[in-house]
Amino acid sequence: MRFDAYEGHRGWINYLAVAPECQRRGIARQIMEEAERLLRQAGCPKINLQVRTANAQVIEFYKRIGFKIDDVVSMGKRLETDKPS
Ligand SMILES: CC(C)(COP(=O)(O)OP(=O)(O)OC[C@H]1O[C@@H](n2cnc3c(N)ncnc32)[C@H](O)[C@@H]1OP(=O)(O)O)[C@@H](O)C(=O)NCCC(=O)NCCS
Are 39 and 32 within 8 A, CB to CB? Predict the structure, then answer.
């Protein structure tokens, strides 16, 4: 997970992932609890993150740990094309 984006307004979580063989043991919940603790300590009032709408399982995970879908439109402007992997 990357946890590097509290800009004084929102704390952004990027790239949370647990290895498939270690999933469903509470690891991601613990990581997010620690991230929340650190953000609260820093005075952050809200955590934001983005999940692709097709990633239904991850959306279910975040709902399970207390996140709600915000009534916002996420907008972006790509400045470079995706590199082939
Ligand atoms: C999403 C992910 C991080 C969850 O990690 P995890 O360590 O397995 O999650 P936890 O074990 O901490 O689960 C916490 C809770 O969420 C639930 N949960 C986890 N994965 C779930 C799923 N796919 N569907 C529904 N609920 C789920 C668990 O049952 C648990 O609930 P409970 O404590 O009430 O029983 C992991 O599945 C993952 O790495 N996915 C692929 C990477 C990815 O797409 N990341 C998001 C990028 S935006």
Answer: no
Count of domains in the chain?
Answer: 1
pLDDT grade, residue 37 (50/70/90)? very high
The whole-number pLDDT of residue 20 equals 98
Residue 2, pLDDT > 70, answer no
> Which of 31, 58, 65, 74 has the most ligand 1 atoms within 8 A of CB, as the residue to mutate?
58
* Structural domain for 17, as ranges: 2-64
Global confidence as pTM? 0.91
Ligand 1 binding residues, C-beta < 6 A: 16-18, 23-29, 51, 55, 57-58, 60-61, 64-65
Q: Residue 18 belongs to a domain with what CATH number? A: 3.40.630.30
